[in-house]
Predict the structure of L-2,4-diaminobutyrate decarboxylase.
Amino acid sequence: MHLLNQQTSEQYVTHMQKTSAVIKQWLDDNNVYLGGTPQQVQATNTFSIREQGRDIDTILADIQSKFLPSCVSTANANCLAHLHPPTLVIGQIAEMIIAATNQSMDSWNQSPAATYIEKDLIHWLCQRCGFDDISGVLFDEWTGHNAGGVFTSGGTQSNLMGLLLARNQFYKAKGVDVQKDGLVGQPVGAILCSDQAHFSIEKNAALLGLGQKSVIKVATDASGAMLMSDLQHQINRLGADNVMAIIATAGTTDLGAIDPLMAIGKICHDAQIWLHVDAAWGGALLLSQRYRHLIEGLNQADSITLDFHKHFFLPISCGAFLLRDNRNFESIRHHSEYLNSADDEQDNIPNLVTYSLQTTRRFDALKLWMALDLLGTDDYGALIDSCLDTAKQAAKLIDANENFVLVHEPIISSVLFYFAPKDTALSDNQLAQLNRHIAQELLVNNIANVATTQFKQCLCLKFTILNPNTQINDIADIIEQMAITGFKQLNSDDLNVDGKK
Ligand SMILES: *Cc1c(COP(=O)(O)O)cnc(C)c1O
């Protein structure tokens, strides 16, 4: 009676409508966050498991009164903390279909049409990344030897796949089958990435048995992009033969810095080193009309991370891993009679389990498919570009304000800055404390969700503008509120300024 089937189809519509109404009210209220302090939000959202269940109306009433106000609303224009966007309604519609159909991407007979849709989309993404410029023809059949890929749970998993395949390839070249024999006793190759690269590189290196120490951080310039001189120096120091992979970042998480992909690609090509490009954020520029050139050289990669639950405005989770030569998937192929039997494969029945680290897997590709269908690449690109434009305007405002310091011009759509009141001598520590306080106060008081982060030696406030509805007026209001909060704190006794308690 509670399952989705023919008998419950009427109720299904009623319940979905009620749910939509609850969500509509939450959207209309348009708060940033009403949950209060961590203690308050925890107390509001306690839950007791009962022997008897409750009816949907009661449950939805609780969701409405307790859970939703305790959410940070990504739909609100002042929610600017992380790479955490409002979602396209078409993406939510797709989520309804994904949940209702519950296709699983691990075998064709659990996802017949979905398998082909995902494959088509991967094909298109490979083209969009420019893999066909390099390999000539793109793969035509799923057994083909050209570009390929798979949808993933996000950037962390895509980065793991890149490192995994690079690792397998590195040892294969030395005559070692790591998948089978493991790593014990083998010399560990180095992984080079910038000091601004995502933390998942180190986490994944540890997962792969390489150890975090195998990750060597290359120095970056003032814009957070990898310094080629230091990259070359590190390769010379280690010996190119001992470098397992270079991870370039196209859009670092904080500053949006883009490593020089062309130059890194050339080094990797000449030295036969695997290049993985983490384009979890910058990959969105694939659709940009005005900023596409910033990721020039993406097609030099052996493998690429893309994330659609960031600057593509799709619900979590939705990411992809792309591979220039899909023969490299062979190293992780497993045969299981119930999913990808040899008979099926001979009959050319596709399965995607071979390409994924997951077994049961969501049909996340539908979200991107439907979003592209609705918007077309032009309007999709324009939405992405509008965020970059707002970031540039925001930086101008901050730069013109004597009580704030702009740390760097925006590259994609993050703005790093901090409150440093004019004519007030504060230590780095005090500034950090003050700026942290500002971010906390703005959230707890339902004004804005802004992040703090460390860039180089500096504790910064961060706007990550991933909401096309955020206007420059919204930004101006937030900056004003930041100054009010900052000055109030300065004048209170809580901040230890100039020996004052
Ligand atoms: C967000 C991000 C990741 C991690 O992706 P998830 O989808 O959160 O797993 C990796 N790399 C970069 C550059 C990112 O910005």
Notes: The CA atoms of residues 29 and 286 lie 35 Å apart.
